[in-house]
Amino acid sequence: MKEVLTRAPNETERLAAHIVFHLKGDGREERGTSTIVALQGNLGAGKTVFVKGAAESLGIDDTITSPTFVIVKMYPIGIDVPWKQLVHIDAYRLESEKELNSIDWKTLASDPKNLIFIEWPEQVGLGVPERALWLEFEAVDEDTRKIVLPDTVSLPEHFV
Q1: Could you tell me which of 62, 72, 116 has the C-alpha nearest to residue 92?
Q2: Rounded to an integer, what distance in angstroms lies between the CA atom of residue 95 and that of residue 79?
Q3: Which stretches within the chain are classed as H helix?
Q4: Domains of the chain
Q5: Does pTM top 0.85 for this prediction?
Q6: Looking at beta carbons, which pairs linking 96-101 to residues 24 or more positions away fall under 8 Å?
Q7: Res 158 pLDDT > 90
Q8: SS3 for 13?
Q9: Which of 2, 52, 106, 131 is the most buried (most CB within 10 A)?
Q10: Rounded to 5°, angle at Cα 58 from 139 and 129
Q11: Tens of pLDDT along 13-71?
Q12: CA–CA distance, 130 with 97 (Å, rounded to integer)
């Protein structure tokens, strides 16, 4: 696992853009499944800021906010990438894998045209597949965030 410190929201957003770039070439669309990024961390740890950076890198102009009360928000992607839709899920209010199915999870997770970001994945038990890219977020202080990611994700020099 790698630890990255970002010292401002725009650095967290740039890290997200880099990871989206990394995911573009993972071949998921050829295997017939969605691309899933599971974001773990306490409130205020930077998960939604991360999704905002990912969305901006995909040409999405909408204001990205956490879908805490609606559970899921979907945004069309208008640039040439393997995905057609960014799906943002906040599972904080869910209590089980069964509740995840209420948002048609199986369909969302099996569509290779979906790039899915799920906040609070631990709330839904085994609902999030092992193939997901799991990231852990921690607020170190008011501006600094620690993000732990798998060694399989390459980082540009300024994040190392």
Answers
A1: 72
A2: 35
A3: 9-24, 28-31, 47-57, 97-100, 105-110
A4: 2-159 (3.40.50.300)
A5: yes
A6: 96/124, 96/125, 96/127, 97/124, 97/125, 97/126, 97/127, 99/124, 100/124, 100/127, 101/127
A7: no
A8: helix
A9: 52
A10: 65
A11: 999 999 999 888 655 555 678 999 999 999 999 999 999 999 999 999 999 998 888 99
A12: 14
∠93-96-102 over CA atoms, to 5°?
75
**Confidence at residue 40, expressed as pLDDT on a 0 to 100 scale:** 96
Amino acid at 93: R
- CA distances, 137 to each of 54, 64, 70, 129 (Å): 15, 18, 22, 19
Give the pLDDT confidence score for residue 78 in this predicted structure.
Answer: 85
Integer CA distances (angstroms), 23 to 34, 41, 153, in order: 11, 21, 9
pLDDT at 101: 86
> What is the per-residue pLDDT for 30?
58
Contact in structure between 145 and 12 (CB atoms under 8 Å)? yes
pLDDT digits (tens, 9 = 90+) for 84-121: 999 999 999 998 888 888 889 999 999 999 999 999 99
